Amino acid sequence: MNDKTAQILKLLQANIDRIAIAFMYVLVAVLVYFWWVEQNPAEATMGEQKIAVLKDPVAENPAYKMIAEYTKNPDISAYPQIDQVAKFNMFEYKSVKQREALEREVKTKVESAERAIAEGRNEEARRLLREVLDAFPAHQRARELMNKLTGGQTSTAQAAGTTTSPR
Description:
Oligomer: single chain
Number of helices: 9
Structural class: mainly alpha
């Protein structure tokens, strides 16, 4: 190497930190300029503006439409058992006590309806069973007795809840 090249290398090594800082400033300035152009397209182009029209292919995808349909909240008012569970708050003491009292009342009404059926008072039994099924649409024993009285023809509102008994 000649003296001139060695001198330049020595100067570069002595000032490498300043060179790196200058390079970083230039890089930041370029990034700020690109950001400014992106945020202010009218000032940057100074000519005729074209507004970009972007089309979202995801919204037109049939699988996306199917997922969107499945993520909608269903109306549970048509299902009395689920609606009953949704409205029940097991952490509220009053709600639990009211529920227990209602269940005791329902139990006594079902027992009264069974006695009325055994004694031949079918109208009274129907009235008691309707009250029970209004309070607990899914009460299995009340439903069985009502089907026995009506010959298997319960109303459509009662037929909606056919799976489980509250207790």
